[in-house]
Specification:
heterodimer; A: 4-stranded antiparallel β-sheet; about 50% strand; globular; B: 7-stranded mixed β-sheet; 4-stranded antiparallel β-sheet; 11 strands; about 55% strand
């Protein structure tokens, strides 16, 4: 069965530091890949998506993610974190041959001044 | 363009009652999905509707049901509420095919069961 793993439940970084959130997936083929962010009390907002082509994709709010087929990973990065980036981040996978959508369990990001 | 609208934002119910949650998708979106989010279980898929037909269903008991209307608006119903049903219920809409269309989420309905 397809699955999405976010190994880090919680990450704390200092404001201005770089960030990398990990995401690994289990799927027979290359799936559609997404990163979402959720602020407290709100729904999920799409940060970026990967369908095909260039393996480094740019998203909103200065985020980027790199797809690595050999590692079945789609890690999210940001060069310099802002206090407003504190939120919950979800990696998600959409099937190419079906119509299912799978979410990871999320990584909670705390930003300290 | 208006986003996904979920009503109500907050609900308090008691065990045994039933509840109906509403979701209005983004204009033009025909697919509506529902998720349950809890601290312990994360985001769990409930079901997806497309053109008034349920296309996918997650692993939830039959107490959870939904429907979609011709204008793509969707409702979710939970009968015989249990304490464990306390959660944030999120609705998401997308243009069409589930797998390759990003889902756009509403802010959710926070359901508390007393």
């Amino acid at each position: 069965a397809q699955s999405v793993t976010q190994p880090d439940i919680h990450i704390t970084v200092s404001e201005g530091a770089s960030l990398e959130l990990r995401c690994n997936y289990s799927y027979g083929a290359t799936p559609y890949l997404f990163w979402y962010v959720q602020s407290p009390g709100q729904g999920l907002q799409l940060l970026l998506k990967y369908f095909s082509g260039d393996t480094l994709v740019q998203g909103i709010k200065g985020f980027e993610a790199e797809f690595k087929r050999s590692q079945s990973s789609f890690n999210l990065r940001k060069p310099s974190v802002h206090w407003s980036d504190a939120a919950e981040y979800f990696c998600a996978v959409g099937e190419r041959t079906g119509n299912q959508f799978y979410f990871g369990t999320g990584t909670s990001l705390t930003v300290i001044p | 363009k208006a986003g996904v609208t979920q009503t109500p934002r907050y609900l308090i119910k008691t065990r045994g009652q039933q509840v109906t949650l509403s979701c209005s998708p983004i204009s033009g979106h025909r697919s509506v999905s529902w998720y349950q989010q809890t601290p312990g279980q994360g985001l769990q898929f409930l079901f997806e509707y497309f053109s008034e037909t349920q296309r996918n269903k997650g692993n939830f008991p039959g107490r959870f049901s939904g429907r979609q209307f011709s204008n793509s608006r969707s409702e979710m119903n939970v009968s015989t509420l249990e304490l464990g049903d306390s959660a944030l219920y999120l609705c998401a809409s997308s243009l069409g095919t589930f797998g390759n269309q990003p889902q756009h989420f509403g802010d959710g309905t926070r359901l508390s069961i007393l």
